[in-house]
């Protein structure tokens, strides 16, 4: 029994000794490989690893680690995904196999270039999740996604999936409409909202013009060029731009004549080299019908019309009841100022209200903010869809709406709504001459008398001394007193403003006339002059006048018989002017 136990102890001791000796041998082999690696003697290390069968999975783990390290440079020289995959299979279980897996990912990532699709990078992200190479692949996937985005929808998807990516600013520049919303309220204040927010620089919002090709420009800059092409002075245009303080553009949003079809107005911001544009409808007062026609003759403005029946004739009158143009001659170009057209007459001026009301003569010149309506105002060409046709009696202008009108023969120039707005001509009021309805009492000879029920108004006859005192007023209208012989004059409040106007019946250059002299604090001394056949009754004075008030209208009248024919002359005020009917 004792012998058996001694034998058992000896065998165990022998086994322990043999195990220790095996471990020592393995340790010495590992040390050998380690030293060879330190001396960069990789080929010798590889040969010994082959000899000691270190490639076998049941070989000593320490020896396998060092042998895997010894074979690393050989695989690194090949440096392909296949080589690294083979390395991993050979040295499975070692730390170097794990490193080889990451190197496989690095090589796979390096094999992709700037043209590789987003999914190729995402495959690497999925395969090598948790490794540094996955983060690098994710970053490059973002660049590829930005490059591949070809719609607003795709751009929004990329922005969601790659939050904070450094390529997103380029995506914003590529598709700004995927991120920005720009709006203008009723006061024309522009607001800009960005969602999601990305750190990107963009310009202040502006009112803009976009061509059919997508080119975006400042609205005021484009309109400025249009106005300059139409003959508006640059100084006047810049004054409007510089003095513009409120929200919105300096000029209204109106279609620009001759601009290509598809041009738009709106609001925009610039993001890098790209533009974010939102269309805004044209202003409601910008219809094609909203234009004016100017007629020039010998490079002088003779006639301007704002629509059928609303026109101003600046030429000499030769038919019907003639006004001052029969007695004075213009000496310069037309000037636009405060809803009136001024025509130089010697040292005086003829004033034509844009409403079409009766014009007058004055010595008060236009103010500083005047605008010349000379031949430099070239206009903007015939509006689209319009046509003009000459006739014996003038020119017929036809519009798409069929509401055309007739203008005198001459050189026509059309003004766009933008030019009209620049000149404050886009909404001129329209005067309507309407003789007050009065049921006159007429005697058997045909002479009219004041009707029953009319309220009499005081009329005071002027003395000769008072009439002579008006020579400066009349002279300021450009008519020399030596040309005039006054028959008589009267003071009467024609416009019911508490101040008397003066009505003179006279002869100028052997032609009978009626003058209405008005003293206005704003408009200055105004002289209205009309031809008549009844300032005198042959060689005798005309019948004495009287004044009546019918409803809200005051009438200054006289009637009688001349050459066996009854007549009735009526002077009254209307639309800020005075009329002889």
Fold and architecture overview:
The protein is α+β, with helices and mostly antiparallel strands. It has 4 domains: 2-111, no CATH class; 179-279, no CATH class; 293-422, no CATH class; 441-580, no CATH class. Helix content is 30%, strand content 28%. It is built from 14 helices and 32 strands. A hairpin with a 2-residue loop joins strand 24 (501-508) and strand 25.
Provide tags for this entry.
4 domains; 14 helices; 5-stranded antiparallel β-sheet; alpha+beta
Give the structural class: alpha+beta
Strand content: 25-35%
Could you give the order of strands across the largest sheet?
A: 13-12-11-10-14
Average pLDDT level: 88
How far apart, in Å, are the first and last alpha carbons? Answer: 162 Å
The major pleated sheet works out as: 5 strands, antiparallel
Number of domains: 4
| Tally of individual helices | 14
Give the helix level as a range of percent: 25-40%
Report the radius of gyration as a whole number of Å.
Answer: 50 Å
List the uncertain runs.
Answer: 13-21
Q: Tally of extended strands?
A: 32
Molecular shape: rod-shaped
